[in-house]
Design a protein that fits this description.
With about 290 residues, the chain is α/β, with parallel strands linked by helices. The protein is about 45% helix and about 15% strand. The protein folds into 2 domains: about 240 residues, Phosphoenolpyruvate-binding domains (TIM Barrel, Alpha-Beta Barrel); about 45 residues, no CATH class. It has 11 helices and 10 strands. Helix 10 packs across helix 11. Bound molecules: coenzyme A and magnesium ion. The site of coenzyme A has 16 residues, from strand 1 and helix 1.
């Protein structure tokens, strides 16, 4: 998953636009983009949409962002949407890997009730929306087979810690948010799931979006969430491994193979050891999955 496009779950008009958006995943939102009065309607619209697009081969995978455990609305959300078989659930304000385990067991019950294959519903989690969540970003390994990705959020963290500004005047994130971003990347890799970068909210600023995507890709994120369809093409482009990168990775794998798989080789005047080989293999596996 390179691009994950948020769509408010109460907007039939925007939901209709999601199908041809080019996004790898649609994140249909029942949480922050839906007012309290509209929660019920959003559940109804979302369930209807899921059923409607189920047979559409062009439709991206759909994860529903439910409300957090703390909100006490999560069970109502699951009750309303699980019969419509979403591909996954995006859990906001996750504070520990145990929250994923807790969601995992609830999903098991809904799958049984709705005749969905056991374990088919995936989970992604937003892990830095509270101070405690950020401190626990390294706790997501071996919590659930369903976990496919973790990502981070700056808005709610900012509210939780009472920070006034998220970015410096040059556009870079202030330290606390860079920390949240870093622990998400490390936490995802440690848990062997996809590290996904957070949204870029200034949806008219294409240059700023591209720069943030490129920095994320350089650091090791494999995708980014979007809030507007106009962001999807750039995200897909930046997070698709280039032909040049694929060729180089193939050359590295081949060179190790030809040399009899030693610890270290020289290629084009460069020393390459096992971490280089592993990085090349990871890139090739990601490129294969995108096909
Ligand atoms: N998904 C699908 N379609 C979207 C969309 C989205 N996330 N955001 C905008 N569109 C549609 C609009 O409905 C509009 O359609 P139209 O041309 O048929 O009228 C078109 O794309 C252009 O939209 P635009 O006028 O540029 O933006 P807007 O002012 O209508 O909407 C936002 C701006 C931010 C309100 C909107 O992009 C949005 O709702 N984003 C998602 C918010 C969200 O889910 N947040 C939670 C996670 S942080
Ligand atoms: Mg939020």
């Amino acid at each position: 998953m390179r691009s994950l496009l948020f769509i408010p779950g109460d907007s039939e008009k925007k939901l209709a636009k999601g199908i041809d958006s080019g996004a790898d995943v649609l994140l249909v939102d029942l949480e922050d983009s839906v007012s309290l009065e509209n929660k019920k309607e959003a559940r109804r619209v979302t369930a209807h949409y899921l059923k409607e697009v189920a047979d559409n081969a062009n439709c991206p995978r759909i994860y529903v962002r439910v409300n957090s455990f703390d909100s006490e609305m999560l069970e109502d959300d699951l009750n309303a949407i699980m019969a419509a078989k979403p591909h996954g659930i995006l859990l906001p304000k996750s504070e520990h890997g145990k929250d994923v385990t807790r969601l995992d067991s609830r999903l098991g019950v809904y799958e049984a009730e709705n005749r969905i294959g056991d374990g088919l519903t995936r989970i992604a989690a937003i892990v830095t929306e509270t101070a405690i969540g950020t401190l626990n970003a390294g706790t997501y390994g071996n919590r659930s087979q369903r976990l496919s990705a973790i990502t981070w959020g700056a808005e709610d963290l900012s509210a939780d810690i009472g920070s006034i500004k998220k970015r410096n005047s040059d556009g870079s994130y202030r330290d606390i948010f860079r920390h949240a971003r870093t622990v998400t990347l490390l936490g995802a890799v440690a848990a062997a799931v996809a590290p996904i970068d957070t949204v870029f909210t200034d949806f008219r600023d294409q240059d700023g979006l591209r720069k943030e995507c490129e920095e994320a890709a350089i650091d090791g994120f494999t995708g980014k969430m979007a809030i507007h369809p106009a962001q999807v093409a750039t995200i897909n482009e930046v997070f698709t491994p280039s032909q040049e990168a694929i060729d180089r990775a193939n050359a590295i794998v081949d060179a190790f193979h030809v040399a009899g798989n030693p610890g270290v080789i020289g290629l084009d005047g460069e020393m390459l050891d096992r971490p280089h080989l592993r990085r090349a293999q990871v890139l090739l596996s990601r490129a294969r999955k995108l096909k």
